[in-house]
Amino acid sequence: MLLLCSALIGELHPLPHVSLRAAGAIAYLIVAGSLIAFTSYEWLLSRMPATKISSFAYVNPVVALAIGHWVAGEHIGLRTFLGAVLILASVVAILRNKTAEYPNSGRRGKVSCHGSARQGDDERSTNLDTESGKSAGGTGDRLPSLRQ
User: Domain span at residue 17?
Assistant: First the structure.
C-alpha cells in the first residue's frame, strides 16, 4: 500500500537502486521473520500453553543482541548485559513457577499452565466463594470451574 502511494505521488521516479545484498536482506526478513516465525508461533499455540510460548517475546531482544555481537561485532555495554541477564532470569522464573496460591485461603496447590487443577486436587479447590475466598463446597456463588 505504501509503495503504491509512493508511486502515485512521484517518489519512485527514477526507480531507486536496490543492491542485491539489500534485496536479499528484505527477502530474508519477509520469509524468516514473518512467514516462518508466525507459522511456528501458531503451530506451537495449538500444542503448548500460551504462558510458555509468550516468553519468546521477552527473549527475542536478548537473542538479537547476541547475534549482533557475534555477527556484526556490536559492543554490549555493562547495562545492556545486566538487562539481558535480568530478562533471562525473569523468563526462567516465570516458566519454573508451577504453584499458585488460592486467593484469600492461605492454601497452596499445584495449578497447570492451562489454569486447571492438577490430578489429585478436588474440584472444590478451584471453585472459591466470591466473597470469602473459602472453598464453596456446593453453596453460595461459585466461580466457574477452571477444568476444561
Answer: 1-47
